[in-house]
Amino acid sequence: MIPPSTKDIMNIASSKYAVVVAVAKRARVLSEQNKNDENNRLSTMVTEALDEITKGKVTLKLMPDATSKEA
Questions:
Q1: Considering the domain boundaries, does residue 67 fall inside one?
Q2: Which 8-state DSSP code applies to residue 62?
């Protein structure tokens, strides 16, 4: 797999941090689903998660910023 460019990542979300968190959460889910698989490697799950997100198979659900205060 060719790593996605920064431009591709920024098309997914306005924050690189949000994409990193989403990839980590998706990789954790994939890892849990394949818990009994002996060939289960975290690096493979991270790659698969990133691939799913960049291809649009999994979408990011952004929550409102909890730190901003409304007056």
A1: no
A2: P
